[in-house]
């Protein structure tokens, strides 16, 4: 004990810093309601921790008490695009109740507009105008009116049946107010003087008055995502003009429990303040946990498909097995992507909104709704205080090894207890603040090794700091013994780029302006290269030479280099806009990429050395950059680079022999990711490949016809003109029967 006290005395500043850190976290907890001190990033981390617990605890089971009648792709394909005529919806309702004997139906769709699909409104107009003098037309129309009034058919199908309509609230500046709202469950002033803050709204989209009046009830299906766009909670109540309106799920649950009304139950207030808000909605004998905004945490059973899905067209046609729907709770909604009801959730990025509501009903029926009452702040505060004091005392007195063991044990115990409380008590206790505090305290202690780490970093900076970006220096400094300037042979990817027509540009500008233009060009291009983990070899006037794969070994060097090259080309138009505003000429560049074996290391003379690459593969990269002018393209890669990045689509430009190299190489123009290719691009590439094959077989007429067609479709692509010109030359001077399709370039 005396030894621990002596260590604490020597490290008193560190103890004070850790106690200060603890106080800051305690202040965050006490002001969690956003009063005067709040760390938003902890809320973001808490969301991540919440999602992790959801994923670990979902039972991944199927609840067949609730069935989703799905407006799916199959239904849309067989019946037609949504919305359908309401005569079909009336038939669906009749089928559900008369044939399949369902218990209750809820709609996750809105019927905001009259259904004119039968043409009744057109016939009525004709009766009033063109055929007003023909009484037999009016009599005939009256005889068929009911069969053409689809809204009336739908209304009649709703009457006397437990069907609950859905509607939505919106709070935008131009929020609309359409349709008729159902009666509120609480009137204005019901919660005056309380800290009960359901979401307020300025507009709504509800159902037609006749449909609303015919339905058994209605509730909103509005989903309010958290700040990160993920739906974790669903409001049970919404406030509009002082009145409170229940959710679709709450309305259906009230029916299931035969509850004519709801009331609220209040829990314990940890803070001792005047804070008062209900912790539960009470429906019959069931308590539903809510927060101060009357939201429930969605009790996800798992990914999409945790409830049976039945295609609506099968219900319409009556082809569903009766046992699949008998005495079931039915929610009618959509999983079709085109109908825009897919939401980001903790369990899945594109999750049908209708299944969110199904999960809530299931959770209420099984008492699985997680609780996050206000009093859990007391538990969070206590845990932070105990753990913080423990670490503030024992971490400074521990060796680095013991500190790692101590923090690991406390972290595991904290996470384990939190998950046990989550799993078995259905209680959500915040965990992110405690974990972050522990990690920060640990890092504060470990920072005493900072100077040792800095010494290694300074050694690496002395060797490589002028070549590679700072973030790579940091990575290399973690194990400096693995890096040196000694020459070796590696497979790397090299990039060459320079400005087209730089001589002409330089002659039109004064020295100062030219220097500024070069700086404005080289700086963002260098930033792109370094961001993609590239090493700058050298600047050669207006040109840049860079490589990937050294000094840090990088298996994806070809992909990183190609990504950088594509980003450089994308950055050029923005750069040229800035140049135009300063009266500078527009800049165009050519880029060559090659992958192959290269010698890399610190090379030069006793007077000057540089960390660089050499070899035939480097020379080929330089030649490819030069060839961009010949083929009127901005970027050319070799066949080895193409093989290293198969996820890209390429246009084969040619098979060539470049100056200084006897072996022919295939050269390519990258187009973009294959997954982003449009149909027109794919068709063009296919036609071009056919034309190129005919050209190499010396089928001049067929090849020329194809190239002419391609040129007409794409007049800006000079490549096709190049091949047309070559074909004309080869007609006059044939290359011979043994010609292999290779074109020899005699200049750099």
Rg over CA atoms: 36 Å
Q: Number of folding domains?
A: 4
Number of helices: 25
Helix content: 40-55%
Mean pLDDT: 85
Sheet of most strands? 9 strands, mixed
- Helix and strand content put the structural class at alpha/beta
Q: Strand share of the residues?
A: 15-25%
How far is the N terminus from the C terminus? 78 Å
Give the overall silhouette. flat
Parts with pLDDT < 50 across at least 5 consecutive residues? none
Number of strands: 27
Secondary structure layout plus pairing:
Elements: H1 2-10, H2 12-30, H3 40-57, E1 66-70, H4 73-79, H5 86-99, E2 104-107, H6 120-128, H7 135-148, H8 150-158, E3 163-170, E4 177-178, E5 199-200, E6 203-205, H9 209-214, E7 217-220, E8 233-235, E9 237-240, E10 243-246, H10 248-256, E11 263-265, E12 280-283, E13 286-289, E14 295-297, E15 309-311, H11 312-317, E16 329-333, E17 342-343, E18 351-352, H12 353-365, H13 376-394, H14 400-425, H15 432-446, H16 450-464, H17 470-477, E19 488-499, H18 502-507, H19 511-531, E20 535-540, E21 543-548, H20 557-581, E22 589-604, E23 609-614, H21 616-630, E24 635-638, H22 639-644, E25 648-657, E26 665-673, H23 679-696, H24 700-713, H25 718-732, E27 742-744
Parallel strand pairs: 1-15, 1-16, 2-3, 2-16, 3-7, 4-6, 5-9, 22-24, 25-27
Antiparallel strand pairs: 3-6, 8-14, 9-10, 11-12, 12-13, 17-18, 19-21, 19-22, 20-21, 22-23, 24-26, 25-26
Helix pairs in contact: 2-13, 2-15, 5-8, 6-7, 10-12, 13-15, 14-15, 16-17, 19-20, 23-24, 24-25
């Amino acid at each position: 004990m005396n030894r621990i006290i002596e260590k604490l005395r020597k490290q008193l500043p560190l103890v004070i810093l850790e106690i200060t850190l603890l106080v800051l976290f305690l202040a965050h907890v006490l002001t969690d309601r956003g009063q005067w001190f709040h760390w938003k990033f902890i809320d973001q981390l808490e969301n991540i921790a919440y999602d992790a617990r959801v994923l670990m605890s979902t039972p991944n089971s199927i609840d067949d008490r609730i069935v989703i009648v799905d407006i799916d792709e199959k239904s849309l394909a067989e019946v037609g695009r949504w919305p359908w005529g309401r005569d079909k919806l009336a038939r669906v309702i009749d089928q559900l109740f008369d044939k399949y004997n369902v218990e209750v139906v809820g709609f996750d769709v809105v019927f905001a507009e009259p259904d004119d699909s039968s043409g009744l409104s057109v016939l009525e107009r004709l009766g009033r105008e063109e055929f007003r003098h023909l009484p037999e037309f009016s009599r005939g129309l009256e005889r068929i009116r009911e069969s053409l009034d689809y809204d009336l058919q739908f209304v009649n199908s709703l009457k006397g049946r437990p069907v609950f309509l859905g509607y939505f609230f919106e709070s935008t500046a131009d929020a609309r107010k359409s349709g008729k709202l159902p009666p509120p469950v609480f009137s204005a002033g019901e919660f005056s003087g309380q800290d009960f803050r359901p979401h307020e709204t300025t507009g709504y989209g509800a159902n037609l008055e006749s449909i609303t009046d015919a339905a058994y009830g209605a509730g909103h299906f509005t989903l309010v995502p958290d700040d990160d766009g993920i739906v974790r909670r669903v409001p049970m109540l919404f406030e509009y003009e002082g009145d409170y309106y229940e959710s679709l799920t709450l309305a259906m649950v009230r029916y299931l429990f035969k509850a004519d009304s709801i009331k609220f139950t209040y829990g314990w207030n940890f803070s001792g303040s005047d804070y008062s808000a209900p912790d539960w909605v009470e429906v019959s004998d069931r308590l539903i946990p809510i927060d101060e905004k009357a939201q429930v945490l969605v009790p996800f059973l798992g990914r999409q498909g945790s409830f049976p899905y039945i295609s609506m067209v099968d219900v319409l046609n009556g082809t569903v097995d009766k046992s699949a729907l008998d005495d079931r709770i039915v929610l009618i909604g959509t999983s079709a992507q085109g109908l825009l009801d897919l939401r980001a959730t903790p369990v899945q990025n594109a999750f049908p909104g209708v299944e969110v509501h199904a999960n809530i009903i299931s959770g209420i029926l099984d008492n699985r709704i997680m609780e996050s009452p206000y009093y859990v702040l007391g538990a969070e505060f206590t845990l932070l205080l105990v753990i913080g004091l423990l670490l503030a005392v024992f971490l400074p007195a521990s060796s680095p090894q013991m500190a790692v063991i101590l923090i690991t044990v406390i972290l595991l115990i904290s996470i384990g207890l939190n998950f046990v409380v989550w799993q078995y008590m259905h209680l959500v206790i915040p965990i992110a603040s405690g974990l972050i505090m522990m990690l920060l305290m640990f890092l504060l202690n470990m920072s005493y090794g900072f100077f040792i780490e800095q010494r290694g970093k300074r050694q690496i900076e002395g060797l490589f700091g002028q070549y590679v970006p700072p973030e790579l220096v940091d990575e290399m400094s973690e194990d400096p013994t693995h890096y040196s300037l000694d020459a070796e042979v590696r497979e790397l990817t090299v990039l060459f780029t320079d400005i087209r027509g730089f001589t002409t540009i330089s002659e039109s500008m004064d020295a100062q302006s030219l220097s500024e233009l070069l700086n404005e060009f080289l700086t963002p291009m260098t930033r792109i290269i370094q961001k993609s983990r590239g090493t700058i070899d050298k600047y050669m006037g207006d040109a840049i030479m860079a490589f990937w794969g050294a000094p840090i070994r990088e298996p994806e060097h070809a992909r990183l280099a190609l990504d950088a090259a594509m980003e450089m080309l994308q950055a050029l138009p923005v750069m040229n806009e800035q140049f135009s505003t300063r009266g500078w000429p527009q800049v165009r560049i050519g880029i060559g990429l090659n992958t192959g074996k290269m010698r890399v290391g610190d090379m030069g003379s006793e007077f000057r050395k540089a960390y660089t690459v050499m070899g035939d593969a480097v020379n080929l990269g330089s030649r490819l950059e030069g060839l961009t002018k010949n083929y009127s393209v901005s970027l050319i890669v070799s066949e080895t680079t193409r093989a290293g990045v198969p996820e890209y689509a390429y246009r084969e430009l040619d098979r060539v022999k470049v100056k200084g190299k006897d072996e022919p190489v295939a050269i390519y123009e990258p187009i973009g990711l294959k997954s982003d290719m449009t149909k027109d691009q794919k068709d063009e590439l296919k036609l071009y490949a056919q034309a190129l094959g005919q050209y190499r077989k010396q089928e001049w007429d067929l090849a020329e016809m194809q190239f002419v067609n391609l040129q007409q479709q794409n007049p800006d692509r000079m490549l096709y003109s190049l091949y047309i010109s070559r074909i004309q030359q080869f007609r006059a001077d044939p290359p011979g029967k043994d010609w292999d399709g290779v074109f020899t370039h005699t200049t750099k």
